Amino acid sequence: MDRDALAEFLLRRRESLTPADVGLSTGARRRTAGLRREEVAQLAMMSTDYYTRLEQRRGPQPSVQILTSLARALRLTEDERDYLFRLCGHSAPDRARVTDYVRPGILRVLDRLHDTPAFVVSLLDEVLVQNDASRALVGDASALTGLDRSGIYRWFAYPDDERRRYREVDHPRQARALVGSLRAAHGVMGARSRAGEIVAELTARSPEFVELWDAHEVSRRFEQHKVMVHPELGEIEVDCQALFTEDESQALIVLTAAPGSEAASKLEFLRVLGTQNV
Question: 1, 56, 150, 160: most buried, per Cβ within 10 A?
Fold first, then answer.
């Protein structure tokens, strides 16, 4: 691990960004250029002390998960991300298989969506990054680990919890859509990938999944209109728009409601309230 080069790289990248670049308010007048250390730490979901130690050449070797978060927070290109990994003594991620890296262009779009739920998902329906409005509507996905990160996996592994955000009448359609997406991801990623692991786990624990998987339906699309169920506010009708990356490995999902509708009022209420209990 090259601590000197890492510290310089982090500092230069931090100084090259403005709050507007990452969706933050400019706030009071700044005495230095770029982002503050605490802002980078906030975006990377780590403590300010930990990030400060990295810039001061006295931090421990960051894990792959930490580096992935830093690359996202600092809006690194793929080349810059690979360089960051190598500085810290890790191999550069395999670009053909990595799904956690979110391209800066997609992040810039997400940064500008403050008033409506929006999030980025992988081929396996893993929420990679989300805005506050999304957390308020569908919950915070940042603490999920392992296979639990996949919405496809959770739908069949924990049906009592996961399906409460959809009307019961919509459960069969949603289940088919998720399995169709998993079949498409499995074709891209292969049987020895995380997609294959999800298939194996769900085959062992969910007869419903096995029946749908055996139908061999393949599709990756998002319903243009759906009804979400919030635990306190009840049903919220939303329109769903998906913006795919060029290689279609990720999608930016934006949920909106018709202006002046009851659903729009509920989304605005959630946006103002955040993730507090109603």
Answer: 150
